[in-house]
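Here is an idea for our session: we take a single protein and study its fold together. Which protein we use is up to you, so please pick one and set it down. Once you have written the record down, we can walk along the chain together:
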Amino acid sequence: MTTVNDIKAAIESLSHKEFTQLMHWIHEKDMEQWDAQLAQDSAKGKLDFLIREALEEEKKGTLREL
């Protein structure tokens, strides 16, 4: 089984180009997981408070456009 230390050692041996490719891949995987978690939280209603807050700010006239 590969350990974190084995992976770290392998990363250390990468060329700059390979390291950059790996970092891009890791970033994409992280964003996929973030998107999946956000979708799950939204489906469960965990983010509904944000909608309520925005609607309240809109009523007060203090909602800022992004």
Q: What stands out?
A: The CA atoms of residues 8 and 14 lie 10 Å apart. The radius of gyration is 20 Å. The chain has one domain: 14-60.
